[in-house]
Amino acid sequence: MVQKYQSPVRVYKHPFELIMAAYERRFPTCPLIPMFVDSDTVNEFRSEDGAIHIIERRCKLDIDAPRLLKKIAGVDYVYFIQKNSLNSRERTLHIEAHNETFSNRVIINELCCYSVHPENEDWTCFEQSASLDIKSFFGFESTVEKIAMKQYTSNIKKGKEIIEYYLRQLEEEGITFVPRWTPPAAAPSLETSLSCKKPAASLTVVVPDPTLKEGLSGEPLSTPSGAAEPTAGTPDDKLDADYIKRYLGDLTPLQESCLIRLRQWLQETHKGKIPKDEHILRFLRARDFNIDKARETMCQSLTWRKQHQVDYILDTWHPPQVLQDYYAGGWHHHDKDGRPLYVLRLGQMDTKGLVRALGEEALLRYVLSINEEGLRRCEENTKVFGRPISSWTCLVDLEGLNMRHLWRPGVKALLRIIEVVEANYPETLGRLLILRAPRVFPVLWTLVSPFIDDNTRRKFLIYAGNDYQGPGGLLDYIDKEIIPDFLSGECMCEVPEGGLVPKSLYRTAEELENEDLKLWTETIYQSASVFKGAPHEILIQIVDASSVITWDFDVCKGDIVFNIYHSKRSPQPPKKDSLGAHSITSPGGNNVQLIDRVWQLGRDYSMVESPLICKEGESVQGSHVTRWPGFYILQWKFHSTPACAATNLPRVDDVLASLQVSSHKCKVMYYTEVIGSEDFRGSMTSLESSHSGFSQLSAATTSSSQSHSSSMISR
Fold first, then answer.
1. The last residue of a domain, from among 144, 173, 202
2. Where is this region: Disordered (predicted)?
């Protein structure tokens, strides 16, 4: 498996020319990088006007690897080729490095770039990317990979120190300014091409370490001490290292790389609608920074949010009065770490009465609104306290908990709520304080704990009786002045006291069933399954020519081909035969086929749009201006990827390929609308689904511009 690394943008508050002067002092060897033994110039080129300077070096590195591994490999050193291309006119330095030793067994590539800050010409930006692909290594592939990644990340951290060290050295020598390149008035022929003999190399190296390359390119991967707050000049599609530290916390180089790569993938497949960086980071942390797993769960969550319009729950949904009166929970200041504090008096809450009066769907929706409010409060506290706060603390008081709380439908509702929250709000619970746990608590814990993630369970602190008042208790996590009064504290807590829900508010099972159905079918989207050989098709009848058919759909699973056809006659209604040949119902959505198999393309119906291939995870919006009245068929068809395509794909396609499933089944979630031509302004503003951007999770939402006949994939 190819290991990849992508750095954030590092900003140096020094001019490009001064950074270059510091960087060049790293050669031929650098005492700050012990593994960097030596380097020889292999080739060098300088343009006539001196603006272009290209130098190629052969670098010798002593890898910190087990002696036995070096002996088996038969080498003591690793050799790398590094090519530096300096363009003084454009003020850029591009660095390419690859391994020479064991290049048939291990492929290591690194690309780095120094450039001028886009909004401050006296600052310098740095970016770095690398890849490691171990084909074979004497049966020690896994060991070599671990050693390589460990050394590479450790050298990355030294990048900043190295540049700062040489900047101080220059300052001690009285060099604080290096003039920019200027075209010579009359330049003599300065073009030189030196070819230095390659020293006889004892092909060395055992541990192909991408880390070596860092040592080669010497990239400052973090900003110098002078560089502070995040800069507005950093392009929107890139993350600044200072921004990460200020708003997301201290991440290791590999964690930064995972965040940047997943963010890039989302930008290419969900353009203009990506979640905020804090939320992306939560999914990565929940999956131990496994990009494939985090991407899969995040895409499922984003589809769920869009389908049920969770982004607007705080603005559009108001909890029933019963919840406001009898749900014994609410927000209460913050803990010592600055996390928002949520207090839940579960022991005083009539869970059976709430379920009987409202149904589990209303309770679920209320819990979702609490989580959405928690996300908002985390953002506010991050600004207030000046440090990253991405989770909240929950204080649960169990005084009064009894067998009534173990009522089976109530426990079932609780388990479902836990399941939904775990899937869509990972790593939002920073700490859970369970106080005054009674004897019945172990029974409830036995029922609930299997549904709680291991990482979440580690955050639970349980106190029986009055133990929370002793050492290691509540005062270790919450300031004395905000401990609620019902816990013998000094602060008045406005959380409702709960109590029994009057039976007069209970509703029948039929009423609750209808209410539950209504709550969760409040979505403008429909789901459909697409099978190999069984596309999903919908029929749209157009009476007036020049009407506009608009669509908005997400490819939830698999790859599909989207087509639009026109027919003068209506297809026959899908047959509901026992074999389900034309209409298939599945848990993931319906499947309807309208085009009769005896129909011929070009005779019975015609294609009015070019086929559009849509990859898994993509969000597609588009429109078609109809030329004739009649019947239009929108079709989602299974797309087969050639087997050889998975071997050498571009970055994003390679990512998508890893998600492909073996079964011949795809899922789409779609919405369509027909708009009169006079009402269509060439944009998606009239399409209700244009508001499906993640308003609460997304840092920026953009609308897509459409005109005449168009279709746009958010890549």
1. 173
2. 214-237
